Amino acid sequence: MTENTIQTRPEAQPEATGAWLVAALYHFARFDRYESFREPLQAFCDENGIKGTLLIAREGINGTVAGSDAAISGLLAYLRAQPEFAGLEHKESRASKMPFLRMKVRPKKEIVTMGVEDIDPKRIVGTYVEPKDWNALISDPETIVIDTRNDYETAIGIFKGAVDPQTKTFREFPDWVKNNPGLHNKPKIAMYCTGGIRCEKATAFMKEQGFDEVFHLKGGILKYLEEVPAEESLWEGACFVFDERVSVEHGLKEGNHKLCHACRSPITAEEVSSPHYEEGVSCSTCYPTRTEDDRDRYRQRQLQIALAKKRGVRHIGG
Fold it and tell me: Which stretches make up the Rhodanese domain (predicted)?
């Protein structure tokens, strides 16, 4: 076995529904002991067959994990037993197969990286808006609606009429705000993101910048797609998710997007038929920005993935 492959192990079987339970969670809290909590949290997840990513920092916890119903229920109880996370909320969806390759618990400086000092949603934050009330707010002509996600996420779905900052990373968002004085032209700012964490932190930043009426979608797009019927929805497209499902749609059903493993961009079934698409090597998005040498490297990686699969092992890069 090479260093690029890992032996497959029998995984805990999902519940009788035939689907893995996926939990997206975050909680802002003063968590000074985050570094010492990494090892026991990793051990708990490993022992219960849970996979995904959890980020822990002095400002709290953030991540998405998947496992059996019993395992995820146990993890949530374990986290809420920590005094700092007693009020932790989460969102659930289903996956037809395990959507993560491994479990990672990572201590970080921020649980969602904005790169601005002293932004604290526990001290100042916008007004939460329930999914059932979101349509009325964003349909108000006095409201500017802002998507706080990155460009590869907004490319496959966005709320009707929303402003897309076209940011590559969340670190670019503060500068985008400062460079757009027109945001002050209307009294209300409504912000949203995938699960609620980025827009919550973004509202704290906006309040610090002097914006008064700032709102954010509670539970993010995921909660909206879960609770608001498709026939009443103002959501257009699919919602990018950070796991092997790639996207979800209304009712949190798995979407039809694939992931280009060369550039990590979501691609549609139509884009797969593009002459610039080659599995694991390129897509129409990244083809113009990669060299032939790059593509040759990706082809070698894709070959190793295929060979590992034949041998019954999983290639880490796959």
Answer: 139-233
